[in-house]
Amino acid sequence: MYLVTIGEIFLKGKNRNYFQRKLVSNIQSALNVKRNKIKDLRNRIIVFVENADNLKYVFGINSYFKVLECDFNEMNENALSFIRNQKSFRISAQRINKNYKSSKEIEKEVGAFIHDAENIKVDLKNPEINIRIEIIGNKAYLYTKINEGLGGLPVGVSGDVFIDVNDEVKSALTAFLMMKRGCRVSLSKDLSLIHKFEHGLKINIREKNKEDVVVKDYAFENLKEDNSENFTLKPLVGYSEDNIKELYNKIKDL
Predict the structure, then answer these.
(1) What count of other Cβ atoms lies within 10 Å of the Cβ of residue 188?
(2) What structural domains and CATH numbers belong to the chain?
(3) Which of 30, 73, 123, 232 is in Cβ range 3.0-4.6 Å of 54 for a Cys bridge?
(4) What's the Rg (C-alpha) of the chain?
(5) Burial class of residue 209 in the structure, from the number of CB atoms within 10 Å of its CB (0-12 exposed, 13-18 middle, 19+ buried)
(6) Global model pTM greater than 0.85
(7) CA atoms within a 13 Å half-sphere pointing along the CA-CB vector of 234
(8) Residue 119 CA from chain centroid, whole number
(9) Tens of pLDDT, residues 9-24
(10) Beta-ladder partners of 232
(11) What share of the chain in percent tops pLDDT 70?
């Protein structure tokens, strides 16, 4: 079981439900699961799977982590089960729904139980293990490892753009950045790197149309005058060549 946190969707006000439904749909596509394997809790999304590696390719996710779900009366023992041979620990608790004890009370109670059971030191600044607890509804969710997500918006909530592929590295990064803003992309030439982020859309390889919003892969160093009749975007203008290489390598290694 995995817990998914959302980021920028929080800012979408009345449109938030639309954005979150699209994110749930994209998660379903990435993990190839039925809809009943995903539980939308508005502030959190629970995914009932054993392996959720593909979540790292889904835009709109702030973070995700494998969790142990339990009732409140099982919380102490389940938190203790995370302790192996560590010499220090801390408890970090938060409540999504404020229908239970305060976060400080939870941390104090669970911390005292583990300290008494294992005679292990509490270290709030640099613990060997940080046991995190989230209270959602009438359940507690425990975890220790946080996986960073891509952030941004779910693919498919914004408009369509056409990537005029010139330089393969720069064009791949350009497509990535537009998808991170929720855009559906079409390409003038295939870019194999981008297909791993293809959750929520089908990337088309085609020729440019007169109606297209065209995205160019020009960075500041190779910025060119554009006489195209199409509305044109150049998202890499603010990136140096070093920035481009660094970010390209980062997404290539995902």
Answers:
(1) 16
(2) 2-68 (3.30.70), 72-137 (3.30.2300.10), 160-252 (no CATH)
(3) 30
(4) 22
(5) exposed
(6) yes
(7) 14
(8) 37
(9) 766 667 888 899 999 9
(10) 214
(11) 95
| Amino acid at residue number 150 | L
19: tokens are 């954005």
- Are the beta carbons of 96 and 131 closer than 8 angstroms? no
Q: Exposed/middle/buried for 61, CB within 10 Å: 0-12, 13-18, 19+? A: buried
Q: What whole-number distance in Å separates Cα of residue 32 and Cα of residue 28?
A: 6
What is the distance between the alpha carbons of residues 209 and 195, in angstroms, rounded to a whole number? 22
Q: Which residue has the tokens 């990537």?
A: 163
- Residue 183 tokens read as 């855009």
The residue type at 45: I
pLDDT digits (tens, 9 = 90+) for 153-195: 999 999 999 999 999 999 999 999 999 999 999 999 999 999 9
Amino acid present at 89:
F
Return all residues near 27 (Cβ < 8 A) that are at least 6 apart: 4, 38, 45, 47, 55, 58, 61, 199
Helix axes of 168-180 and 241-252: crossing angle, nearest 10 degrees: 70
Asked whether the predicted pLDDT for residue 229 surpasses 90, the reply is no
d(CA 174, CA 187): 11
